[in-house]
Amino acid sequence: MREILLGYGIFAMYYVLTINTIYFGIILFSFKEISKILKSTTFSKYKSLSGSNNVPPISILVPAFNEELTIIENVRSLLALHYPKHEVIVVNDGSSDDTVGVMIKEFELQYYKPTSMKDVIKTAKVRGLYYNPDYPNLYVVDKENGGKADSLNAGINLSSYPLISSIDADSLLEEDALIRIARMYMEKPEEYVAIGGNVRIANGCKIENGVVKNVKLPKKLLPMWQLVEYMKAFLGGRIGWSSVNGLIIVSGAFGVFRKDYVVEVGGYRGGYPGEDMNIIIKLHRHMLENNLPYKVAFCPDAVCWTQAPDTFKILGSQRKRWGRGNLKNMIEEGRFMFMRPKYKIMGWLTIPYNIIFETLSPYFRITGLLALIGYALMDMSGWKILLTFSLINILYGTLLGLGSMLLEEIAFQRYPRIRDFFKMLIYTVLMFFGYRQLGILWRFLGHIDFFRKKTSWGTMVRTSFNEDKKSA
Amino acid sequence: MEQHVGSRIIQTFHHFLQYYQESNLACGMIIARADLDAKQLERVKAHMERMEPEVGVQFSHDQEEGLVGILLDNRTIGYSHFYSLYVKEFLEDNGFLTGPILVGSFPESSPYAEQMLFDMITEIIESGGEKGEIRVFKKGNEKKNDSILIVDSDQKVLELVTSYFTHKGYTVHTATDGKEGVAQYELHHPNLVITEINLSALGGYQFIHHIKHLESIKAAPIMVLTNKQLEEDVKRTFEYGVSDYVTKPFSLMEIEQRMVKLLQPVHS
């Protein structure tokens, strides 16, 4: 019995080491890529591009559900993006608050019958459109509740431009975010099917009128943890994944897509969370099955600021939702691509990595830990193994965190102070004492929700964008 | 003669300036903020005579005020500016320089030689400025009292336009978004507005519309200065009643010429 426990425990340790090693490889790819990214951004003239006639127009889709508090500010900042030609389509997803009302009042919108809506993708019933010629590039679509994916589809039906951008109503784009993604797209417009932006945590920053004025690290524990986590996932992970064209997700918070392909794969699939990962996997599948040359890319200098949950309850429900979405995507789409040569990097690396090391990780980790603890209880000399393993794990993880922080410092320097660097480093180490374990647990609970056929979005309480205001 | 700032320099140059004024000959003037005694001034003199032996030059200084005055015989503003570069270099290398350098020339900068020297000294004492900055003196008497409001989210544009036009004698107000722009407009009633179209808080078009329709204030001419080069944007801004449309990257000279045109009816 003891040997079995020990054997299994050691297997679980190697499992964790393998995750870290794969991640290490991905970070190396990120480092390789970063110099290219730096050069291409340094020598681009974004200012003149943002007024140029040759930049493809973009339709920005903003699904809004109960956003009456923040929607005005966000729409204003979207209208003010430095971009030659874009339209902002706000889709009200049957809000129970006055989201449409405040928009009508602020922008003096008129009601129109939804006759101009194309019916490219089926959606919940559209009640009407709101428009004001004084704001020629702002549309508000009012429809019955159907979920986030459904709202995006309704936005696609109304949009008139070849590129669409999905944006969370609670995120703020930097004024040049769109033009930076467009510049990347313009390099190979026939190949880029989706480009994701870099999501940063806005907690702690000073925000005025929908513009981030003053970048600071969050003061609170949870947002700070999420910040280092995002940094690792986006800079360390996504740059590398995108360089081998194995990117499995473009954040729902901010991404740009080619509309024709999104429509070809049937639009966003509703009914459950994880629609952002779902659309990317479907695009990969579609392009590979039809042997079309394509790229799903990540543009780290196009920045979108988002408000991170700062309570355990909200964060937990977000993570459970992610766990649920991930599992569902793997069951519905991933298994068809698992280890199939036809799907190249996706089939050989991305999907297996996701299934074995992301989706199934709670089971291996939880059982492995239990086995080791059980073994240690039976054999008092076993604690050394436990300790050594934990130390290796922490050191390796810290090294990876340090890698992404270096990427940040090389390329972006949003947190220039030395103090900030050490603060981030400390939190990278602290993550191993509680936060990581919670994340694993939440993912597991998400799976349970999935099997109990839970389909709701969970709680997401909006807080004002300014930490200072709240603490004042 | 009453005692006033930099009076030592004024006394030294008094006769020269009278002579230039009467014979209407040109002369360059340089005033520098520098801390040195008579001996050190001799060194400056010797150095400058080595560097530029052709020019007839007079030096003077006022140790209490920490000023050095230089008079260049029969020289234009262009040459005086060039000469001041050498002066700056020498003063800096020896650690004498403590503030900005002001360059002017008679009769280019002003028709009154003595008054001009006095004004230059007053300006350099009162306005401060970066150490080592070289400014060209502008006649104050015909000061345009026109005020401009510039609205742009780009801090660099604001700084550039502000420094250039303040220097030209305009009063410049700035705002970084539409809301602030409206507030500034209502507060200062500027004679001209220069605005970007891409504005947050209140969009560019709404900002233009708003100030065009204020009851209390007569609408000022509006110049759009923007990255947007699309035909439809140009058309739309003119529909909103702007007077001019300039695209970035822009030349300050061009902006100034267009501005003068727009402001003319105000003066006539």
Brief overview, please?
Chain A is an alpha/beta fold. A ten-stranded mixed beta sheet of chain A has the order 3-4-5-2-1-6-11-8-12-7, sandwiched between helices. Chain A has a two-stranded antiparallel ribbon with strand order 9-10. Helix content of chain A is 54%, strand content 15%.
Features:
heterodimer, A: 472 residues, alpha/beta, ten-stranded mixed β-sheet, two-stranded antiparallel sheet, 16 helices, 12 strands, disordered C terminus, B: 268 residues, five-stranded mixed β-sheet, five-stranded parallel β-sheet, 10 strands
Write the layout of secondary structure elements.
The complex is a heterodimer of chains A (472) and B (268).
Chain A: H1 2-42, H2 46-49, E1 58-64, H3 71-79, E2 86-93, H4 99-107, E3 110-112, E4 126-131, E5 138-143, H5 148-158, E6 163-167, E7 171-173, H6 177-187, E8 192-201, E9 206-208, E10 211-214, H7 221-243, E11 254-258, H8 259-264, H9 275-289, E12 295-306, H10 312-337, H11 344-359, H12 361-378, H13 383-411, H14 418-430, H15 435-451, H16 467-471
Parallel strand pairs in A: 1-2, 1-6, 2-5, 8-12
Antiparallel strand pairs in A: 3-4, 4-5, 6-11, 7-12, 8-11, 9-10
Chain B: H1 7-23, E1 27-34, H2 38-51, E2 57-62, E3 67-73, H3 77-93, E4 97-106, H4 113-127, E5 134-136, E6 147-151, H5 155-167, E7 171-175, H6 178-188, E8 192-195, H7 204-212, E9 222-226, H8 231-239, E10 244-247, H9 252-267
Parallel strand pairs in B: 4-5, 6-7, 6-8, 8-9, 9-10
Antiparallel strand pairs in B: 1-3, 1-4, 2-3
InterPro entries (chain B): Bact_response_regulator, CheY-like_superfamily, Sig_transdc_resp-reg_receiver
Protein name (chain B): Response regulator
Organism (chain B): Pontibacillus chungwhensis
Structure description:
Chain B: It comes from Pontibacillus chungwhensis. Chain B: Pfam families: Response_reg. The complex is a heterodimer of chains A (472) and B (268). In chain A, 54% of the residues lie in helices and 15% in strands. Chain A is an alpha/beta fold. In chain A, the strands form two sheets. A ten-stranded mixed sheet of chain A has the order 3-4-5-2-1-6-11-8-12-7, with helices on both faces. A two-stranded antiparallel ribbon of chain A has the order 9-10. In chain A, a hairpin with a 6-residue loop joins strand 4 and strand 5. The radius of gyration of chain A is 23 Å and the shape is globular. In chain B, 45% of the residues lie in helices and 21% in strands. In chain B, helix 1 runs antiparallel to helix 4 and helix 2 crosses helix 3. At the A-B interface, helix 3 of A face helix 7 of B.
